[in-house]
């Protein structure tokens, strides 16, 4: 027996469900993929923009640091130049002070010795030798007591650390009065008058 399907549609076989094709699932997957791709591109763009902004900020800070370094280098150069000028002036002042001390030192010493001898009775000085640390004095006195007075007066000036009697002999050339020749060794001390200070008035009484 022959059956003819006049509707033109195939009759489904028994035991099998019909397959329904749809495009809705494909659209959802495609849309999700687009969203993920957009988020990835946006994230990368933001990260790149953030890096560029950090780079620009770093370059700006580096430029400021370079400008500040150049300014400090100029300040340092000016400071070193002023220090050099100051050192030159200081050396010149030190040289002048040393020359003044070298000049006034013997003058003060002579003035102090002269005042001390002049203030001691019956004592005359005819030779003084300055060796730097010691001063040797040679002179004559009418008595050993006058020599002792001179030693005490020299010690009291504060210029000498020690004053020692090296020798004393009676001068036989002087017949009318008794006279003694003496030699004193005076060691300079650190408390004596400096070149910038006048020597103190010698102790003792003035000769009449």
Question: What's the CATH C level of one domain?
Answer: Alpha Beta
Strand sequence of the main sheet, in spatial order?
Answer: 1-2-4-3
Strand content is 15-25%
The largest sheet, given as strand count, sense and whether it forms a barrel, is: 4 strands, antiparallel
Helix share bin: 40-55%
What's the pLDDT, averaged over the residues? 76
The CATH superfamily of one domain appears as General secretion pathway protein M, EpsM
Nearest-angstrom radius of gyration? Answer: 57 Å
By CATH, the architecture of one domain is named 2-Layer Sandwich
Summarize the structure.
The protein has helices at residues 24-118, 144-156; strands at residues 123-130, 134-141, 160-170, 180-188. With 208 residues, it is of the alpha+beta class. It has a domain at 99-188: Gyrase A, domain 2 (2-Layer Sandwich), CATH 3.30.1360.
Notes on the structure:
With 208 residues, this protein is an alpha+beta fold. The protein has a domain at 99-188: General secretion pathway protein M, EpsM (Gyrase A, domain 2), CATH 3.30.1360.100. It is built from 2 helices and 4 strands. Strands 1-2-4-3 form a 4-stranded antiparallel sheet, with helices on one face. Residues 19-23, 194-199 and 204-208 have low confidence and may be disordered.
Describe this protein with a few key phrases.
single chain; 208 residues; alpha+beta; Gyrase A, domain 2; 52% helix; rod-shaped
Secondary-structure blueprint:
Blueprint: H1 24-118, E1 123-130, E2 134-141, H2 144-156, E3 160-170, E4 180-188
Antiparallel strand pairs: 1-2, 2-4, 3-4
